[in-house]
């Protein structure tokens, strides 16, 4: 008897190190791996994940750039993609470069003010398919959190290395470690490894902000989008 898949995830590709766009490369700015090779690696990885975790994953790409070149208009594209697909998926995972992941996480957090589903950002320190890559582990952990049955996960978070961090608190500290991000001001929402350990206090606080001014959005029509807050909040 075939398994019934209940968890629908949209995987949104933006480029970044995980896809081979490594900042600072001097060889004609060519990616470490070709787009075709990345697609093949990703598809093979997803087939393994879908079989193991019983999830439905669709893939869409919105742009393919190094995250150092991310602009506010790129954030608006991401926001529009999430809103357009809000009714069809239970969670959204964004593969993103590490240099500006914190900025994108914050921008999405401010813009999607009453989102009732998880939007998880992740990426890699080493490109997928390269020796020592952390890409597969970070992708698997993001999907594990997206379908995690023991706590309500909603809003924007980053999953990278062993940390689960609220989208408004993502801070990068190094280009060398597999755990490059920390949560500034407050602690992380949780840790992910062999097991998932969540801080219920931190998670409840994170979730509470999403319904502070408006009811949580059960569909795209009730999803409140505040694009105008992005540049005002992050650049002024």
Please supply descriptive tags for the structure shown above:
236 residues; alpha/beta; Rossmann fold; eight-stranded mixed β-sheet; two-stranded antiparallel sheet; 6 helices; 30% helix
| Molecular shape | globular
CATH architecture: 3-Layer(aba) Sandwich
**How are strands sequenced across the largest beta sheet?**
2-1-3-4-5-6-9-10
What do the pLDDT scores average to? 89
User: Which parts are unreliable, with pLDDT below 50 for 5 consecutive residues or more?
Assistant: none
Query: So what's the CATH class?
Result: Alpha Beta
CATH topology: Rossmann fold
Order of helices and strands: EHEHEHEHEEEEEEHH
- Approximate helicity band: 25-40%
Distance between the termini: 57 Å
- Name the structural class: alpha/beta
- Can you count the beta strands? 10
* Main sheet makeup: 8 strands, mixed
Beta-strand residue percentage: 15-25%
Radius of gyration: 17 Å
What is the tally of helical segments?
6
How many domain regions? 1
Give me the secondary-structure topology:
Blueprint: E1 7-15, H1 35-53, E2 55-65, H2 72-84, E3 91-95, H3 101-111, E4 118-122, H4 135-146, E5 155-160, E6 163-166, E7 170-172, E8 181-183, E9 190-192, E10 196-198, H5 200-208, H6 229-235
Parallel strand pairs: 1-2, 1-3, 3-4, 4-5
Antiparallel strand pairs: 5-6, 6-9, 7-8, 9-10
Helix pairs in contact: 2-3, 3-6
């Amino acid at each position: 008897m075939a398994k019934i898949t209940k968890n629908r995830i949209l995987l949104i590709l933006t480029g970044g190190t995980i896809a081979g766009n490594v900042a600072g490369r001097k060889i004609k700015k060519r990616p470490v791996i070709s787009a075709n090779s990345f697609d093949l690696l990703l598809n093979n990885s997803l087939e393994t994940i879908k079989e193991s975790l019983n999830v439905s994953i669709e893939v869409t790409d919105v742009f393919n750039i190094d995250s150092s070149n991310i602009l506010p208009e790129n954030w608006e594209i991401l926001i529009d993609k999430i809103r357009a697909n809000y009714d069809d998926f239970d969670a959204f995972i964004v593969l993103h470069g590490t240099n500006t992941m914190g900025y994108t996480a914050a921008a999405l957090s401010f813009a999607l003010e009453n989102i009732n589903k998880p939007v998880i950002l992740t990426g890699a320190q080493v490109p997928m398919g390269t020796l020592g890559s952390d890409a597969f582990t970070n992708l698997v952990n993001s999907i594990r959190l997206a379908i995690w049955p023991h706590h309500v996960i909603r809003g924007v978070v980053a999953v990278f290395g062993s940390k689960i961090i609220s989208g408004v608190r993502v801070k990068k500290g190094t280009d060398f470690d597999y755990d490059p991000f920390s949560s500034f001001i407050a602690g992380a929402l949780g840790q992910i490894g062999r097991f998932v350990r969540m801080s219920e206090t931190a998670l409840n606080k994170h979730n509470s902000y999403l319904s502070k001014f408006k009811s949580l959005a059960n569909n795209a029509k009730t999803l409140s989008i505040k694009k105008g807050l992005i540049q005002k909040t992050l650049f002024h």
